[in-house]
Amino acid sequence: MISIIIPAYNEERYLPKLLDCIKRQGFRDYEIIVADADSADSTRKIAKKYGCRVVKGGMPGTGRNSGAKAAKGGILLFLDADSLIEKDFLENALEDIEKRKLDVAGSYLYPLSGNLLDKIFLHIFNGWTFITQFFYPNACGSGIFCRKELHEKVRGFDESIRLSEDMDYVRRCGRHGRFRMIKGSRLIYSMRRYSNEGRLKVGLKLLLSAVYRLIFGEIRNDIFKYNLRYRK
Predict the structure, then answer these.
(1) What is the chain's pLDDT, residue by residue, as a tens digit (232 residues)?
(2) What is the pTM for the complete model shown?
(3) What angle do CA 126, 163, 159 make, to 5 degrees?
(4) Which of 88, 115, 198, 230 minimizes the number of CB atoms within 10 Å of its CB?
(5) Structural domain of residue 120, as residue ranges?
(6) How many domains does the chain have?
(7) Residues 101, 92: contact at Cβ < 8 Å?
């Protein structure tokens, strides 16, 4: 069984679309856990309507850890509530994981929008994750697979990290297990933050944060003013 874990905060507009994508998958041996961070909208109600288990959430890392603790599956899949997955995403990804004997894996991202800048940005990001997968694992928290035993070995996501806790997570997992980027499975990534806050502004924050991590280590303060509980 695979446990799909979705941190959520006021995601009534986006969560149903992702859950519909999951329900359309040919692969059926899964459970869905929504880690809700005290949403003020109908997020919890929607999750229960779709048959999801709902657990206490928080910031993304906290929510993922909470969902993993409740998970029954041997493989964990962390998804963002505003992402989408293509048909046969689960089947193709799990086949690739077993074929290459992976313990942890990231997903390549494709923009939900048709904006050319979004396509260019994610193309660059995908190229970066492709290159670094062989020596310094990086992956976006929107689509990370990890064997539960490895997740427990590294003690999950570091909840003290303010930004790029997903990058830290796969890097630590990569020290104890085999990491690679998944082939042949497309994860559709929401660009709403880029659209609402400004593509240049968000892109610059992420670039500077990557440089900061290389020089100073993990980001444990709000130096980049990156609101993780985004709800527009």
Answers:
(1) 999 999 999 999 999 999 999 999 999 999 999 999 999 999 999 999 999 999 999 999 999 999 999 999 999 999 999 999 998 999 999 999 999 999 999 999 999 988 899 999 999 999 999 999 999 999 999 999 999 999 999 999 999 998 889 999 999 999 999 999 999 888 999 998 887 878 878 877 788 888 888 888 888 887 766 665 544 4
(2) 0.92
(3) 120
(4) 198
(5) 2-216
(6) 1
(7) no
